[in-house]
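One such given next:
>
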Amino acid sequence: MNEEKNYLKCLHCEIIPCVNFLKEKGKLYGGELFLLNEEIAKNKLLPCMPGVLLFASCRLWSGARQTLQEGQWSPLLWLLWQCFYDLKASLFLALTGHYRTAIQLLRPIVENALTGLYFEVRARESETKEEVEKVELEMNEWFEGKRELKWEFLLEQLRGRRVLIDQKILEGPWRKLAEEIHLFNPPLTIERIKELWHQLNKFIHPSYTAMDISLEKKCAECPGLVLWDKKRYFQWLEFFQNIIALIATLLIGFFPQSTQTESGKEALHYFKSLEWEERELKIKAIVCPYMEEFLKTIEIEEDSGDVPSSKQ
């Protein structure tokens, strides 16, 4: 009991305000853990709503890994594993009022996913032992920091291989054919990736409109405290859902059999639970058009009217 009291006393530090995570400054304003508790108590958000997407993605990743042949290694799966660490950190920061920093973590996730995608495509298209060895050599050089892969290079390589397609193809007479033969459903456009990347850039590079100090009264008076902001939370959530939809699309596209594993089936049910939440709970759960589009591609057998329980 004394250890527990000491633990809480430490989180409510009276000496160093910057680590007083339980400080109560005002309504939905204070330390990070105080704010999170207030958000839930006052029905401002449900942590499970963004959390279920991260969990579903991990389960889908597990299903994809199960489909690998003995000795097979996937660059895409390897780098997506790092993406999940970063997504969890971004999720925690957004829930505790650090919206700008939560968004800053998202751009490297997009870059890592595209890098894994590039090496995955190169490895799969290799037809000779020499070609495979060349791809492995380049990957190892990149792992060791000896090879740089610029963003523009990745995009052009993936577009050249028709992994990413131009939006105009989907707007013309070839749309139906493109949707039928493309690796991903829905097809991934280079415009979508570019737009996402450029939007995230302003949270990393100097851009006053993306800074906390530009928000006047909506900014916490003290940098050591955090303040609930619905608009900024949903701004982060739209980016978050966009990236989760991207990752899920990559996994299903390259590992279609993953959805037939127990982990994959579980993942699809968790993804579809967002639609159930909007319909039954009358709350806005899907804020990103790309997530909405992705969910429409999922078909699951309904053996009951219930969604999967989150209880372990």
Remarks:
- The chain has a mean pLDDT of 88.
